[in-house]
Design brief:
- It contains eight helices and seven strands; from the N terminus they run αβαβααβββααααββ.
- It is mostly helical.
- It has a single domain, classed as Phosphatidylinositol 3-kinase Catalytic Subunit, Chain A, Domain 5.
- The N and C termini lie far apart (40 Å).
Length: 200
């Protein structure tokens, strides 16, 4: 894996592809999302915050059927104040429409290589401590209403109705999975003995 100084030279670089962070050569190489996430966390200023952002973006990939999720379509940048973070999203499109049928190349995987398709098992598979796992679960859970609202949101942005309808099942599936993460959200005890979510 490339070092921080090799990735961000003071003058030459403003951003770098995640593929470069992990020293991946070629295009569309399969890699587990956990390994991409680990590489991302190793160079950013806020590992937890950027991990959450990375995962929220993948929710959108799955909801809107953007299968072109290889490591060259994610990048990190260093801001003038020295903060290293994900760049804004780029190359985000409903790639299921591509006649060449571009498959999803990076998957969330279990230790035995099995592809994980549910967000609960994905969150449980992460190599993070329990406090971070709880924060990630909570952020994903809180994203559910926004995902559920995607059809109207993207319609207002001018996305064609046929694309919205083609993505409706995957949007609904993602929203439902995120709602189900309530079971992983840390809870705190109130003065009356009841339990509520940690940010309830």
């Amino acid at each position: 894996m490339a070092t921080w100084h090799a990735i961000f030279r003071p003058v030459d670089f403003v951003y770098t592809l995640l593929a470069s962070v992990l020293d991946l050569r070629g295009f569309g190489l399969p890699k587990s999302q956990q390994k991409l996430l680990c590489g991302l966390r190793s160079v950013v200023s806020d590992p937890l915050g950027e991990a959450i952002e990375f995962m929220l973006r993948d929710v959108l990939n799955l909801a809107m059927r953007n299968t072109d999720n290889h490591a060259r379509n994610t990048a990190v940048q260093r801001l003038p104040d020295g903060v290293v973070q994900l760049t804004p999203i780029f190359d985000f499109a409903p790639m299921f429409l591509d006649p060449e049928i571009i498959p999803r190349s990076c998957h969330w995987q279990a230790s035995d290589g099995k592809v994980l398709r549910g967000w609960r098992e994905i969150v449980e598979s992460l190599d993070v401590d329990d406090s971070e796992r709880g924060a990630i679960a909570e952020a994903l859970h809180r994203f559910a209403p926004k995902v559920a609202a995607l059809p109207e949101m993207v319609k207002d942005c001018g996305v064609e109705v046929q694309i919205i309808e083609a993505c409706r099942k995957t949007i609904d599936a993602q929203a439902q999975q995120l709602e189900a993460l309530a079971a992983l959200v840390p809870r705190r005890e109130c003065s009356d003995g009841a339990y509520v979510p940690s940010r309830g």
